[in-house]
Write a structure and sequence with these properties.
This protein is of the alpha+beta class. The chain has helices at 15-20, 26-38, 71-77, 102-110, 135-141, 166-176, 182-192, 255-260, 368-389, 397-401, 469-480, and strands spanning 46-54, 57-64, 111-120, 127-134, 150-154, 159-160, 197-205, 215-216, 225-226, 269-272, 275-276, 287-294, 303-309, 317-322, 325-331, 346-351, 409-411, 420-422. The strands form four sheets. It has a nine-stranded mixed beta sheet with strand order 6-5-4-3-7-2-1-10-11, with helices on both faces. Strands 12-13-16-14-15 form a five-stranded mixed beta sheet, covered by helices on one side. Helix 2 crosses helix 4 (102-110).
């Protein structure tokens, strides 16, 4: 078939903004950049998120210690629809990204312009690259399609890799980015990134109509918060996500709290404004834990659901993960949707790899399988409440007093390890050091980074707990009669 002379489709620069609007909630855009560092093709063990003033420009930056990207991969990263992450996936570490769009939609939601600097390879084969995705630049030059200037160098010689557009690309980058010379770019690549990794700088950050940044950088010097909105009431109210009804979990407006639960099995250290995020094994943070299961239609295996109580006042509901990544958080179902206190404090956790995430990875496709899952989760949450609280409309006082995690797990600080270890029952969380390593473990069977992680019974196949409430309720009725 002869395709000579057939016109190519063009992609208007305006699409960069249009595409970013899928992220109604700002943290979902940040999550896209966290995913890129976590995914197995990069496989970073550490990610730093910070607010930096570069020159006179306030920037949001992301620095990881992953594999970095080659010049070819960088160009695909700045383009649309290219995604080959699945070929890097392994059994317990599968890629979250699927559509080849996350970096573009996420970065352009946070600011008008983004610069990607990366170091890839080692020794004489080490290549450093810089690429720019910039709405400001495209508007200034009157571009009719999306142009992505990029330049690469051999690190040890600092020789620019020859491409037809290398000089014009460098001129554009130094004119429209926060780094105004080739020397400045090379110095950053050498000093910011130690061995390999990627440094993303987002600038011309998004502001609200009043001219203020949408993020509050001053409320907490170790956090990035979504700024409070002016409400129509007398007092200011915290930002509430559009899908919330009468709830306001801290994870909705505190990036530190959100990052702490973003992954079901955290495998990467996240440093927010130079302070480490205390990531949580959320399954292990619950009290009175019971395991139930749900077998989706057409699936060979049942999906495990972990239920338990949390001491947190507002942060409860169903947590729905996909390939280890949080998609929906604190979804109120069953008793929790009623105008009483039934279901209060109950958290349910399920990994829904059989469902399909939406484009922005903050929901699932609203199909029959998804709706059936929510219906089943509501029933099973009600069963758990009945099992623990009977027909009471509130948790018994003795249960509330005993809401402490059933087990205490802690993560090794060694970035080459990052295994989670179960702490012996007689040790309290407050007795642990700020930085804990496997060698500190009092359980000598797991006191080395070389020893595999302990098998977690909640990760093993097991039968759902035996539900006794209906039998007890029926027996109570017979006694009354």
């Amino acid at each position: 078939l002869n395709i000579t002379g057939i016109k190519q489709s063009l992609l208007s620069p305006a699409y960069l903004h249009t595409n970013s609007t899928s992220h109604v909630w700002a943290f979902s855009a940040i999550a896209e950049l966290i995913d890129n560092a976590y995914d197995p093709d990069v496989n970073a063990t550490q990610l730093g998120i910070d607010v930096e003033d570069i020159g006179e420009t306030k920037c949001l930056t992301f620095l990881d210690n992953g594999a970095g990207v080659s010049p070819h991969t960088l160009h695909r990263m700045l383009s649309f629809g290219f995604c080959d992450k699945d070929k890097f996936s392994i059994m317990r570490h599968k890629s979250v990204g699927q559509y080849g769009n996350g970096f573009k939609s996420g970065s352009m939601r946070l600011g008008k312009d983004a610069l990607v600097l990366s170091k890839h390879g080692s020794g004489k084969d080490c290549i450093v690259s810089v690429g720019m995705l910039s709405q400001t630049y495209l508007e200034a030059v009157g571009a009719e399609t999306i142009l992505v200037p990029s330049v690469s160098w051999t690190l040890n010689t600092e020789e620019m890799i020859e491409t037809p557009d290398r000089k014009s690309s460098l001129d554009c980058i130094t004119q429209f980015s926060v780094f105004r010379s080739e020397r400045a770019i090379l110095d950053i690549l050498k000093t910011k990134i130690k061995d390999t990794g990627t440094y993303i700088v987002i600038y011309n950050l998004r502001k609200n109509p009043a001219g203020d940044y949408e993020f509050d950088f001053t409320k907490d010097s170790s956090d990035i918060c979504i700024a409070e909105d002016e409400s129509t009431m007398e007092n200011r109210s915290l930002f509430v996500r559009q899908d919330r009804i009468n709830t306001n979990p801290t994870t909705d407006y505190s990036l530190r709290d959100y990052c702490a639960i973003l992954f079901l099995r955290p495998k990467m250290q996240i440093f927010l404004r130079e302070k480490k995020v205390k990531t949580r094994l959320i399954k292990k943070s619950l009290s009175k834990t019971l395991v139930d299961s749900y077998k989706p239609q057409g699936m060979d295996r049942a999906q495990k659901i972990v239920f338990g109580f949390t001491p947190e006042t507002d942060n409860y509901g169903i947590m729905m993960y996909y390939r280890n990544r949080l998609i929906r958080s604190y979804v109120r179902v069953g008793y929790q949707t009623k105008p009483n206190n039934m279901g209060t404090g109950v958290v349910g956790i399920i990994e829904c790899d059989y469902l399909t995430p939406t484009h922005n990875k903050q929901d699932f496709d609203n199909n029959k399988q998804y709706r059936s899952t929510l219906f089943a989760l509501a029933q099973k949450l009600n069963d758990y409440w009945n099992e623990k609280c009977g027909d009471l409309d509130h948790a018994p006082d003795e249960l509330v007093r005993e809401i402490v995690p059933d087990q205490l797990w802690v993560q090794c600080e060694n970035p080459r390890c990052l295994k989670w270890r179960k702490v012996p029952a007689h040790i309290a969380a407050e007795d642990l050091p700020e930085k804990w390593f496997c060698k500190d473990n009092k359980d000598l069977m797991y006191a080395s980074c070389d020893i595999p992680m302990e098998v977690d019974e909640l990760e093993q196949d097991q039968e759902p707990y035996i539900k006794t409430f209906k039998k007890r309720y029926k027996h109570a009725l017979l006694n009354v009669v």
